[in-house]
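Q: What structure does this chain adopt?
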Amino acid sequence: MEVMASAPGKTILFGEHAVVYSQPAIAAAVSKRAIVHIKDTQSNKTILKSEDLGFEAELDTKNKKYILKKGKPGIIRYILEALHIAHNHNPIEITLSIDIPIGSGLGSSAAVTVATLAALYRYHNIYFTKKELAEIAHQVEFNVQGEASPLDTLISTYGGLIYLDRNKELHKINAHINAPFVVGVTSKYGSTSKMVKGVKLLKERFPKVMDPVIETIGDLTDEAKTAIEKGNINKIGELMNINHGLLDAIGVNTKELSRMVYIARGAGAIGSKITGAGGGGSIISLCPGKVDDVSNAIGVYDSTIKLTFSKKGVTSKLIGARNINNYGKNNRKNNPNSNYNNNNNPNNNNNNNNNKKYPTKYTNTNSKKSNFVNNNNSSASNSRNIEKRVNNVKSNNNNKSKIKNNNKDNKKFYQNQNAQPIKNNRKDYAR
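A:
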């Protein structure tokens, strides 16, 4: 058996770091993706390979340990954590393909985490929703990093251009930004966990200074949302420049990032700022009519990427399956080895959700009330269902470990979001 799942990277337009402290943020999925293949193996060991990143490792998924055969560890920790949570620890072969630069601020860890979890659920034939997937992917990032914003994993799961408000409710921004972006990537990569911890320590030492800066980033993000909806490109650029200054103030800028920012502006970018955690990584520049000029100018010292935004979120499929379009809900229900059943199906009218349907679309930002807000108890029970189904897989291997949520504050966020069921009649699970 072989499965494949992929998830997009992201770029944060506004709100980095402030989003960790319940301020809003705006981000978009990009055309760069992480692709994870999982297949059966005749070996008695779980092997992880990536030609793109040049590493190979032997994994002990039960004890979260690995033996590195070649290359550098980096992203392995996220894959290992996902396997520890959602796999029954039987030997498998995992292959990672990725065209997102690691440590660049373009959401490589979130894309890899989301794709790995989606592939595992597909491999174990476990039905899941995007809401559930985003929740557990965020838990993986939190476990690895110690602190983590839910924004990256939400973007990798849902795709599109989104706004995350102060109540941690998710909204789709339907406006389309026609102006092009150029991303500059420095050779010095940043550490998300290190940067997040650094901002936290600075905030604890100087709360009267740092708290207003964090709140100002939130106010600026609200201004940017309005500008994006109105298509005010010049205002978006001005706000990007201000946002960069505020990120510099909270200690996540570097001389390499500043160099790229000012080179981009000098070459014609109307707005340029850090994107992502900082400490290295990437900047994003808004440069209508000046894409080549900005790209060439940054490229003298650093590499560049011309990005397009993507509406496509996580996807998964079974490789080599016959009649793939018919491999849907009915086949899973009739399969005695499947962990999918009527009680676990969030769309089933016989479950304990009082026959209420789940919304299947993002909230329009012009709407007064988010379609993701849950007015009944279905979301909480739905979030618990996937834990039960994963544990059913593990119990088949006499492993009774359970998914633990060590971040209770984040649990409220996901319980406030209604599920968006994955289409299960075409290429199954995540579409």
